[in-house]
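User: Show me a protein chain along with its predicted structure.
Assistant: Here is one chain, sequence first, then structure tokens.
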Amino acid sequence: MATISQFMTDNHHHCDDLFAAAENAAGDGDWAACAGQFRKFADAMEHHFGMEETVLFPAFEQQTGMTMGPTEVMRSEHAQMRGVLKRLADAVAQKNANAYLGNSETLLILMQQHNIKEESVLYPMTDQSLGSRSGELIGRMAEMSKAA
């Protein structure tokens, strides 16, 4: 049986691959490809945030009683990344490579810092506290994938 850590880390890698494809297209000046790749990336990121914010974090908070701890920090970072995603979308619409690549650098740093915290701290905590429910929670998050 997969762990929550494995499931969510695999999803991080999926988002990273989509991010790289969009950034490469922007760097090449291929705005049609960039627009398509960026949309896939932005949708994947929002989906990832949604799995955490609607399934994983509430289950963790209910189980542990920690509502102002790591999940609150992660939600705050999600909001920060959503702001950068908006700036990236604007750069795609304007076909502005400098704005796109500058904001993608910012987002890359934010994602790396965020993902390491989740992968090394929060996800292991969820495995520990929610291990007996991991199949159910992964199933619910996987269903969100099918609906997206």
